[in-house]
Amino acid sequence: MTSALQPIQQLSQDLNARFPERREVIDGALCAVLAGEHLLLLGPPGTAKSALVRAIAQAFEGSYFERLLTRFSTPEELFGPVSLKALEQDRYARVVAGKLPEAQFAFVDEVFKANSAILNSLLTAMNERLFHNDGAPVQMPLVSLFGASNELPDGKELEALFDRFLLRFDVQYLRRPSSFRAVVTGSEPTASLAFPFQALQDAQAAAAAVIVTDATVDALLAIRDACTAEGIVASDRRWKKSLRVVQAHAFLAGESATTPEDLLVLVDALWREPKERAKVARLVGELADPVSAKAAEILDAARETAAKVAGLRSSDRKAYIASAAQALDDFKAQQARLADLARGAGPRAKATLADAGQEIAQLHSDLARSVTHGLGLAGAR
Question: Would you state the CATH architecture of domain 5-72+103-130+138-203?
Answer without folding.
Answer: 3-Layer(aba) Sandwich (3.40)
